[in-house]
Amino acid sequence: MEYKDYYKILGVEKNADEKEIKKAYRRLARQYHPDVNSGDKAAEARFKEINEANEVLSDPEKRRKYDDLDQDYQRWQQTGGASGYDFNQWSARGAPGGARPVYGDINDLFADDPQFSDFFGTLFGSMAGRGSAPGARAGRTAAAPRHVEQEVEVTLDEVYHGAQRLMDVDGRRLEIKIPAGVKTGSKVRMAGEGLPSGRGGPRGDIYLIIKVLPHPTFERRGDDLHCEVPVDLFAALLGGEVRVPTLNGPVALRIPAGTQAGRTFRLGGQGLPKLRAPSEHGDLLAKVRILLPDKLTDRELELVREWAKLRGVAAS
Known about the structure:
Elements: H1 6-10, H2 18-32, H3 41-57, H4 60-78, E1 100-103, H5 118-124, E2 148-154, H6 156-161, E3 163-169, E4 172-178, E5 187-190, E6 206-212, E7 219-221, E8 224-232, H7 233-238, E9 240-244, E10 251-255, E11 264-267, E12 284-291, H8 298-310
Parallel strand pairs: 1-4, 2-6, 8-12
Antiparallel strand pairs: 3-4, 5-6, 7-8, 9-10, 11-12
């Protein structure tokens, strides 16, 4: 199996911070994006490699595990690497507190278009639990491993930021990592983490079936979010600034004078992260809902009637 140097792929130093990694990823993703390099298989392969490197280095837990492997791998190389390096030893590494991090096999979310290498799968679990049971006798068919399937509800905020769940399976406490950008119906697989087929036999897989809960403010359409934003009548007439909610905190939006009710403003990159490329986001579409003032004073009513006369509108 080919070792992947994710730092080299992104062109950053091993002590690079989150900002440097994000900057390098965005630059390379733009350069090798399939939309820019239509039909170029080499660019497509490079783009997938860049996404894989970013998937690991932008996630603190994955990066920690990869850095541990990298140090051990470099030491192994320095000794001459006489025998093949055992990558599989890292797929079952434990964590403090009795909970072992388990990463969903993201390739299973795109069964017809695998995005990640065998190296990624081995390191983060997609290759675990494969193969025949140890000690199986020749001529005897091993019992089929038992899979575990469970629906998991996630909020829209968790879709935005990514999520984790603690799960007890056969006396083992697992910390399940759910990637950002999942959709209702997405299936996250933890290979080799299910129930054993029998004494000493291989374990089955765990399948988490994602169900995204409705949000009180936002409606999801693909990776885009839709919402209504209340705008004061005078801001709509004269122009002004309003605060638009997003899943990452409110942002300012400049409303031009004469804005009509129902007008929709697109805020680029304020939607949900894309499952295949979590550093890229959809958009937020904010629809204007104009707020009329209530409990007008006599003077205010008088002014409104005068305004209506100027506009040629009959008013009571």
